[in-house]
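can u do me a favor
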């Protein structure tokens, strides 16, 4: 199925004018700040102090202290120390379970993903967008040589990964423009480096049904991605396959894996009743 005409080219959106500091009168700022605190954690930084939260969020020390105290009381953070440091609490895991359990696509696609992972000698994953990143919601691995081992909840960059490019090229123009402007504001240097590659990704997606990443994100891996043609349960899912770059030249790997990844996406759509 070809892409709609508006996806034939990916244009650099004009930067938004200076936004209203409070454009949404129903927006709960304190709640958003608490979520920002939880979003500071990474796999390589499982423990953080109040000063780390302040540096990453731009919030005052006193605001951070109130937020971390509240999150500890609610079970979303564990307090360690002294000196005081924090880890994510079990309530975060419990909160995510209903979402993952309700994603029928994970159960339907898992056997197909494992078959392709075994063939490609890599990892096949299912990802969705979360703000300015792509997040794994399912994965199948068949190669421990991959230095980056995808796991549920881990993230990928939007602009420099195959999965992120596939998502950006597939969504409607208006949604893409909003996200691209947010990416530009968040990291102008990264945006300037990687935005030009979206045009080629869009052409590949239109002609082949998938797009690739030739060591643009990581020097040790190739990436290939094929999105579903329309959202499922309000989310646009993308199938991603990562393989070690040392296993063969990029073109040969793309010609082998790309069409198989597209077939996986189309079969999943059939199983979901989207075709």
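np, heres the sequence
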């Amino acid at each position: 199925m070809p892409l709609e005409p508006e996806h034939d080219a990916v244009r650099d959106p004009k930067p938004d004018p200076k936004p209203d500091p409070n454009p949404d009168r129903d927006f709960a700022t304190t709640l958003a700040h608490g979520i920002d605190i939880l979003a500071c954690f990474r796999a390589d930084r499982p423990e953080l102090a109040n000063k780390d939260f302040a540096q990453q969020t731009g919030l005052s020390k006193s605001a951070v202290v109130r937020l971390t105290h509240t999150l500890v009381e609610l079970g979303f953070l564990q307090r360690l120390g002294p000196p005081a440091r924090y880890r994510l609490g079990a309530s975060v895991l419990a909160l995510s379970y209903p979402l993952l359990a309700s994603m029928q696509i994970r159960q339907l696609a898992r056997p197909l993903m494992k078959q392709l992972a075994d063939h490609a000698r890599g990892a096949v994953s299912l990802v969705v967008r979360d703000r300015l990143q792509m997040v794994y919601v399912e994965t199948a691995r068949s190669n421990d040589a991959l230095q980056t081992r995808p796991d549920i909840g881990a993230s990928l960059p939007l602009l420099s990964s195959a999965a992120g490019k596939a998502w950006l090229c597939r969504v409607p123009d208006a949604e893409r423009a909003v996200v691209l402007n947010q990416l530009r504001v968040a990291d102008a240097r990264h945006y300037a480096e990687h935005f030009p590659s979206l045009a080629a990704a869009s052409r590949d997606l239109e002609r082949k049904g998938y797009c690739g990443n030739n060591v643009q994100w990581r020097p040790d891996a190739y990436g290939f991605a094929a999105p579903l043609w329309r959202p499922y349960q309000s989310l646009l899912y993308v199938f991603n396959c990562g393989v070690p770059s040392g296993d063969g030249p990029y073109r040969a790997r793309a010609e082998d894996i790309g069409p198989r990844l597209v077939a996986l996406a189309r079969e999943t759509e059939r199983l979901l009743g989207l075709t």
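Residues 1-7 have pLDDT under 50 and may be disordered. hope that helps!!
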